[in-house]
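Readers of this paper often ask what the protein records in our data store actually look like. The remainder of this section carries one protein's record, kept here as part of the documentation.

:::
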Amino acid sequence: MWGSDTFPSMNDDWRDVALGEFVALQRGHDLPEARRRVGDVPVLGSFGITGLHDQARAQGPGVTIGRSGASLGAVSYSSMDYWPLNTVLYVKDFHGNDPRFAYFLLRTIDFRRFNSGSAQPSLNRNHIHPMRIRIPPVAEQRRISTLLGAFDDKIEVNRRISETLDEIARTLFTSWFVDFDPVRGTTAVPGDIRRLYPDRLVDSKIGPVPGGWEVEHLSTELTVSREMLDPRGNPDELFDHFSLPAYDAGRIPTSERGAAIKSTKLRVLDGCVLLSKLNPRIPRVWWPSAAGESRKIASTEFVVALPCDGITRSFLFSLFTSAPFRKTLTSLVRGTSGSHQRVGVTDLLGIEVVVPPRELVERFDAIVAPMFDQQEALTAESKTLADLRDTLLPKLISGEIRLNRA
């Protein structure tokens, strides 16, 4: 069982050392995508894993620091052997210190103040090696890293569970509403589901569909809300703001509470699905959480989509994330490259889709809606864990809070 006492000044067993005495840093190694081969070795770039390769250049566990541009100072951790790219500095030698403690300690340092670049910010290991830091004995390093690592491990477990739930929902939607497996007889389904399908497929404007099912424009399945709000008139209110830049992976974007809001925004209504018009700078589809009391607003680069009668939110989200819909949406992108590429709302609503029977949509919803609810709960739990970890991190690394040996 963990215990803790607060000893703000009683850390005499801690040592004052240069960063280079704590860890030895080295610039990473070039590996263009064209040279990467199929494998399971993570390739660590500026913001973490950027791909896989069949060969490692550094032993795990390992730590990297983004060394240029917007990623300057971004710290990443790998529990296994890895390939550090030349966009990072990586720890070549931990000098006997606990690797995961090194990761957490390096996260508390503002490396941007060591920028040695001009127009392009960059980090030089020779400039940061002499920096003085205080470190505890290795035994206490391990106690600190075990506690903080437990938060990260649970967050990672939550992420993997959420990813699995996503895959299950996506697979079911594809089977029922894209491949029409119950008609083809390629997948076993319960009899009460099979009876909701006809016995044959017929040709349509979008390919084979179950006989008797209609093909309509997307506008028959959703309505677009254009309800606006001017948050500048509510200076004391807190808002969850869906906007640029792109958010962390997951259904619920990171909150931008307290950020300056300079223009009128769309209201994010309960029960909606957000679809990005901007390609490809914002993840395409978002499931806004209904949790909490904060109000939600979105940039006008989003479409606030509300399901029509007979269509559920889970069905609409699954449609938006399905491979055929994503492909169609990409084909409708207009404008020059970069920030000017968008999908028009008129083009979006004109996409032709199959309209399944209401009872089948409801049966699908009964299966996948609890999965989405669980994902929402996991995301909320992970945010709470991350907030607690980030509160404890500087206090443990500085010695303000000391962990006993229990």
